[in-house]
Inverse folding.
């Protein structure tokens, strides 16, 4: 199992918010990689950022990735369309994808969804309760219901995404809003998990249960030893009844 | 459009809770019929209860019904299995069905779902906020988001039903719980809408927006002039390629 | 109800295949408009092609359209991305969309699906049988099962689209292949119906049952008098519990 | 992994059809167990029939089962309702279930689906082609598309089941009919796979690719080490916001 944790890394580079280095001394990607390496000791966990060569998303890197984790927020438009297309092809060909929090507005997620991916939001550090609504789903295994996040940005409905395969989690916020916070999708041969908790302002990615969810997501989204590649266009000369 | 509002009517007969006659002088079924008759002036609205002949669910009555509305709570087990089976056949044959609140545990709903339909609950008169998560769905047309219910019984996840066709509404409660409060299902040729607001203790069925949701549900669930009947077992002697 | 039948119109302009003018003297768009005007006498049916001003897809034209029908084949790449984006926004805002046959590879459909939309194909004029698998769906109303198309291009699985809302039709071909030939999707507030029968080589759009399916699709996809517009990004300062 | 292959076993006991003992000397259950034991060497494979104590479905037997495989045809009504209910509870609590062929009309499958499960059929020994329509699904892993079954009973649409989670396979028959032949469902915490190939008249369960599909189904449906049990009814006295 090879996991690539990709983070735009711009908040960290600019030290905005000021406390980001306090919570995430090795960046949000470093914190997520740390959560995963403790839970998936046999996995090979790598990290990459927008500042890396080829935006951290080179073809040979994606070729070696079973599950890609995506965190982005203020630099979505700096990921070139051709790079987005490259990653999308890998997802359609079977690479798992986990999109976190503000990644909902990334070019990649919007290209895979086909919708605006708009939502409501309010950054007031309020309590989020993440409730399990699909307790038999592998991503929910061992996760408390509710999972309590003391301080979080509110994401609220309506979240403009296509009908998901499964609604795994639904959150409520102190303000009363609700959000489908854990959603699965299949696109081509690829499995996609969107999980909304996590923000540059709060130490959500230091919380053990959050690590459990993301690790479950990695296990679920991995294609294992399935062959990679998109559905081909095929033009057989003969039908099966004629050819036999 | 012919709508039959069925209510077990046992709370009303026993005058339990004591204020049920205050809120619902003509019964919960009467209140719902009133909401509908104002919104669907061309519809023929009837009511029936468990105390009626054939439990209010005679074959010739169901034959004349486009959409059945179901409210039950403490007398689920008094509806005989053969009557449940009869109603189920009508739903599979195309009759629309709207199941309200504690009807989630009715024999009819459980037979159509195949699951326990269990959930969490707490009767503390707390505020429910009903958020729209499928704004393009006909049932959400004109409904405010959130729809605020000042005092309600809490219903919470996990709600053990099969994956719905659409999650139209999700509620949060003052206590922090969430619930998929508006769900659609298709079974056979029948459309089913489950809507959780409403209780014998609170005047939810006097609230105009609740009437709007139920009326939208009736319009959505109605089979119109589609022929009624379940999918038949057919045993053709010849395949299409041989027979032409 | 205002329907816009859009056809790239390139086969007709080039008179390729040679018999296209025999089957479709007013173009494929003209034939489809003719089918619809007989079935939906109160609808306003317009046509447009790639050769028209603004590629036949001007903003004020889309503003006046309830349901857009899309036929394209050899000129997909000539529809500029900004025009595709404009149409996509209208679909997400509630405009119905019916994509026919080779439109599966259009930029518009691929943008809405997020997948390759690849499939198998063979142009051998073989018989297609279109079977209904969702008899209670409004699009299947009054359609024979199977609907027999004497000569058709084969489209076969795997068809790389996301899980549809409903599989309304599945076809078999004389060669033995199968294809999910009638699929519905929701994207944003818009309803999308993909229907595979129809080709520039065969008089499929002269067949009355095909007209019935497309007319049913138009009725189903129309937003009616629902307000148009995509889900907005909203940033409320206060939660509901604080604000009341 | 503990697999229980249950077969009513009545065709075998009556030696109807006459050749059943030729194809299936140890019964259909024996043939399926043989297919599985070769593919899942670490699994514990057991068999049971209707003639066994407690109809082969004792509580302590189900307790020790991760995945139940069900084959029935002419004795559906001889499985008592209380036994059906017991098995259903185990499925809702997480036990995997694979229903084969004519098991579509079993009391168990109908109870879990809530529909008639009716379909078309014709026993003419015609060729079935099983096409993969969800190539990324674990059940499709390594399965040829099409999987060719030389002689089979035809099962055709409309198949009256609820919308499945995934349509993994669609079959065509020599006669031109189509059938959704591989379907997945989730009910409670249990995963269900319906797979239509297989009949008492034809040696389908001797075909290696059929064994591959069923073995994939077992691996997919198994709950692994997830805790077993249905969703409980819970009545918390306090909401989360009050209790903290």
């Amino acid at each position: 199992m090879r996991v690539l944790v990709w983070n735009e890394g711009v908040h960290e580079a600019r030290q905005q918010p000021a406390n980001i280095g306090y919570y995430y001394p090795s960046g949000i990607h470093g914190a997520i990689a740390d959560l995963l390496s403790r839970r998936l000791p046999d996995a090979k966990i790598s990290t990459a950022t927008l500042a890396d060569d080829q935006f951290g998303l080179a073809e040979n890197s994606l070729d070696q990735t079973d599950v890609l984790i995506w965190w982005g927020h203020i630099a979505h438009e700096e990921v070139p369309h051709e790079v987005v297309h490259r990653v999308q092809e890998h997802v359609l060909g079977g690479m798992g994808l986990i999109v976190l929090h503000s990644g909902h507005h990334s070019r990649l997620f919007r290209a895979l969804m086909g919708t605006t991916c708009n939502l409501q939001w309010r950054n007031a550090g309020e309590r989020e309760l993440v409730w399990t609504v699909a307790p038999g789903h592998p991503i929910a295994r061992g996760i408390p219901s509710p999972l309590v996040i003391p301080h979080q940005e509110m994401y609220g409905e309506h979240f403009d995404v296509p009908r998901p395969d499964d609604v795994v989690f639904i959150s409520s916020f102190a303000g009363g809003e609700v959000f489908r916070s854990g959603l699965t999708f299949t696109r081509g041969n690829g499995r996609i998990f969107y999980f909304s908790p996590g923000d540059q302002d709060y130490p959500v990615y230091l919380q053990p249960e959050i690590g459990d969810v993301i690790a479950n997501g990695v296990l679920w989204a991995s294609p294992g030893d399935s062959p990679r590649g998109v559905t081909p266009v095929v033009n057989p000369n003969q039908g099966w009844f004629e050819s036999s």
About this structure: The longest helix of chain D spans residues 208-221. The first strand of chain D starts at residue 2 and ends at 7. Chain D touches chain A through 21 residues (CB under 8 Å).
